[in-house]
Amino acid sequence: WEKLYEIAPVIGRGLEYLHRGCNARILHFDIKPHNILLDEDFFSRNFGGVSHKSDVSSYGMMVLEMVRGRRNYSAERSHYSEIYFPRWAYQRLVTDEDLNIQCITTKEDEEIAKTMILVGLWCIQTDPSQRPTMSKAIEM
């Protein structure tokens, strides 16, 4: 409880900075425990920096979730339906296998889904410098 009591004001100061300390007021709209990044000692650290490429990655995950119709679960899950979708989709594209996604009923729909998967995968690359700009991503 003591650590939680120490962490809460730090999060609050971060939000206060977004609301009042920046040149342009920024509203987060998605504060939740999952979005608070702490290291193993429960300190906030620089986790690679935040940039416009962070938003590109989030956009890519959202596009992949749109294709799948649900969240992109972790690869550590044992149940087939909870396999990490980006990895599964990439393997399907590389081997040119059908996607076998329930709501895809035509070849045209499958091509659209494949394009969306490619965009999503391009956006979520581990190295931010390899991610496209948002302009490039929406051109596809």
UniProtKB/TrEMBL annotation:
Q: Name the membrane topology term.
A: Single-pass type I membrane protein
What is one term from the GO cellular component aspect held by the record?
membrane
* Organism superkingdom: Eukaryota
The name on file for this protein is Protein kinase domain-containing protein
Keywords (alphabetical) are: Glycoprotein, Kinase, Membrane, Serine/threonine-protein kinase, Signal, Transferase, Transmembrane, Transmembrane helix
Q: Give the Gene3D superfamilies listed for this entry.
A: Transferase(Phosphotransferase) domain 1
Entry GO MF terms: ATP binding; protein serine/threonine kinase activity
Where is this protein localized, as stated in its record? Membrane
The chain positions of domain Protein kinase read 1-140
State the species of origin: Solanum chilense
Q: Which PANTHER family match?
A: RUST RESISTANCE KINASE LR10-RELATED
Entries under InterPro entries matching the protein: Kinase-like_dom_sf, LRK10/LRL21-25-like, Prot_kinase_dom, Ser/Thr_kinase_AS
